[in-house]
Amino acid sequence: MSEDLDASGSLPPSDDPTLAARAEARADSVARRFDKSDWIELLSALLLALATVSAAWCAYQSTRWSGVQANAYASAGAARQESVRASNRANAQIVIDVQVFQSWIVARRDGDTELADFWRERFRTEFLPAFEAWVASVPAGEIPPESPFSRPEYQPAEQIRAAELEAAAEAASAEARDANQTGDNFVLLAVIFASVLFFAGVGTKFKGYRVRVAMVSFAFVMFVVGIASVFILPQNVGL
Predict the structure, then answer these.
(1) How many other CB atoms are there within 10 angstroms of residue 155's CB atom?
(2) Which candidate, 151, 145, 106, places its Cα nearest to that of 128?
(3) Residues 49, 26: Cα–Cα separation, whole Å
(4) By C-alpha distance, which of 137, 136, 102, 141 is closest to 122?
(5) CA-CA distance, 29 to 11, in Å (whole number)?
(6) What is the pLDDT of residue 202?
(7) Ranges of each domain in the chain
(8) pLDDT below 70 — which residues of the chain?
(9) Is residue 200 helix, strand or coil?
(10) Which three-class secondary structure state does DSSP give residue 204?
C-alpha cells in the first residue's frame, strides 16, 4: 500500500479513464447545480423587488378607493337630504292644490259661479294644466269623474326634483359600494403580494435544492396571479 503513495503522501492520479470520466461528470454536476442555485437566488431577488412595489401600489389604491367611497357616501347623504326637503315642499303644495280644488268643487256644486271663479283664479300654475285637461274630458257644464290629480299632466316640479335627487343618491350609494369592493380587492392583493415576499424570501433559506425550487416557484405563481388581478381592477391614480 505504501508503494502506491507518492512523495506527498496522497494517491497519484489514476490513469483509469472510467474514474476520470466519473470525476469530471461529478464536477460538471456540481457546477450546474451551482449555476441553478444562482438562478434561484436571482429569481427570488426579482420577486422580492416586484412584490414589494406591487404591495405598495395595492395599498395606495386601497387608500384612494376608500376616499372615493367616503366622497360618494357623502354625496348620497346630501342628495337624500335635499330629496326629503323637495318631497316635503311637494307634499305641502299638493295639499294646497287639493284644498283649493275642493273649495272650487263645493262652489260649483252649490251653483255659486262667482265663488267658483274666485277659487279657480287661485289655482297654482302647476295645477292648471291638469285641471283644464280634466274639465275638457267631458262636455261643458259637467263635472268629470275622478280628479285632476290622477291626470298625467299633474307633475309638481318639486315632486319630480325629489325623485331625481333620490335617484342621484342611489347612484352615489352604488358608486360607494363599488369603490368599497374595489378597495377590498386591492387589500386582498396586498396580502397575496405579502405572501409572495414570504415564500420568495424564506424559500432561499432551505438547503434542499428541490425545496427551494418549489417555494420560489409557488411564490412566482402567486405573483403572476396577483399582478394579473391588479391590471384587471380599475386604477385610481389621482393625478
Answers:
(1) 11
(2) 151
(3) 35
(4) 102
(5) 24
(6) 83
(7) 48-232
(8) 1-37, 141, 238-239
(9) helix
(10) coil
